[in-house]
Specification:
The structure is a homotetramer. By secondary structure, the first copy, chain A, is an alpha+beta fold. Chain A contains 2 helices and 6 strands, in the order αββαββββ. Chain A has a single domain, classed as Hotdog Thioesterase (Thiol Ester Dehydrase, Chain A, Roll). The mean pLDDT of chain A is about 90. Chains in contact: A-B, A-C, A-D, B-C, B-D, C-D. Strand 3 of chain A pairs antiparallel with strand 3 of chain D. Chains A, B, C, D: GO terms for molecular function: acyl-CoA hydrolase activity.
């Protein structure tokens, strides 16, 4: 019934994120939206000093921030450039210590309603198949007229 | 590294569930474990009076119970018949009203550790592709010696 | 700013629940709304056969159903008799095995917005101070005009 | 039965956090453990450039990091200096936009088991009574011999 096709191109969404969310690039550009598809999106986060704790482990907040931005991008890809969507719930399961590698966040939208969008993200260390962190998130979408 | 193959057969797991969890069949046998596979399992819950609210809608607790039993079965399939695994966390996103149909719970294990197992479930109305409820769950596994 | 006072009386809310949610009494009346207060409510669930698993333990779905109904009542007490509020997210932490006793669900509302209400519940075995199950829930509130 | 008294002093816990978790002070010291009590702890996070997004709003990851550190400290206060406790689950409800103020994280432990500790946190803008973010978290505690 509903089409699950994104309505923004990858380039348009990248530009939108750069313009509206410059904060994700503070201290070094490390996020790259790699792919968008039907009810899906993939984002990459470089292994970079600003995400690390002493010892070289990627910090929890860095993973949580990645999950949030990636889900946000997945939703925008399908509803268009609405800068006012707001995160209302995030649930994280931390499964393994990440490698000293870039992280890949694979998102799948579970619902795209008029008021709420819900998605899930699996985060992997690049080159590995084991999920290091899984998250689900809910976003409130402003009225569109 | 780790094999993701189940270590119980479908028949052995069905028998184990019948013996150890007779409660799921109280008031009528409605749960059927349909399939187990690598880090996955699928359970079916009939559309049956005992799961309904007036009006014919499947109740929230019925869906929550299905998610829990299905995840539990998915874990047992991979660790063997350990009746003492305990649910520690369940997170549910309710996405749509279910149809007046059987529900199918598709489970995927995200982690099978020594102490904790984590999985996710997508619940569909039979014959539909829209997820009505998505859940993640964590189970504490007793020490095995 | 916002008043946190309930806008329904305990009696009016009890009658509303009985009329609109008769399902919670199927198989025996076991839920009793005991108290409503500023951003709070307390519901009791009798220790009753219909909530038990073989062995006498209160089932997970019975606790989850209690948490949902109690939060729902807490919200209605503060927004008035709106039968169409819908549960969108529930997160449960199961902390201990409940006693063979009635359960008490103590709710606190965390937010009462125009579109979303969020609350938490602590469930105790009657007469005990240890929480057996803690839940948070989000409810979508229909447009009111 | 169980005592709910902390077993570390506020000073000992502050020193331990400084030594074992220097990362939380990278870019400026903004976290202050203000209080520990029976099954509780309170942490303050200054309103500081490093936690902000353009426009001056405190970022989601900054709030999520605060919740995690505060819960972690609350647990350590009660189990002693065990640097290897690991976050396994975090659930966040984002309720309001925080003020341009310091944040206060009020933690309450819900369970302190041998293997798992569970707690909740309410985060407020300093000087306000409205909760901006509520979280629950589960931590895996290593075997202690």
């Amino acid at each position: 019934m509903t089409s699950h096709q994104p309505i923004m191109t990858l380039d348009a969404l990248r530009e939108f994120l750069d313009r509206e969310f410059p904060q994700i690039h503070v201290g070094g550009r490390t996020y790259e939206l790699e792919e968008i598809g039907p009810f899906s999106a993939r984002m990459r986060m470089d292994y970079h000093e600003k995400h690390l704790r002493p010892g070289g482990t990627i910090s929890g907040p860095a993973m949580m921030g990645l999950a949030d931005v990636a889900l946000y991008a997945a939703i925008l890809a399908h509803i268009g450039p609405v800068p006012l969507a707001v995160t209302t719930n995030l649930n994280f399961n931390f499964l393994r210590k990440p490698e000293q590698q870039a992280l890949i966040a694979d998102c799948r939208l579970l619902k795209l309603g008029k008021r709420l969008a819900v998605g899930e993200v699996s985060i992997y260390s690049e080159g590995s198949e084991d999920i290091v962190c899984h998250a689900t998130g809910t976003y409130s979408i402003p009225d569109r007229r």
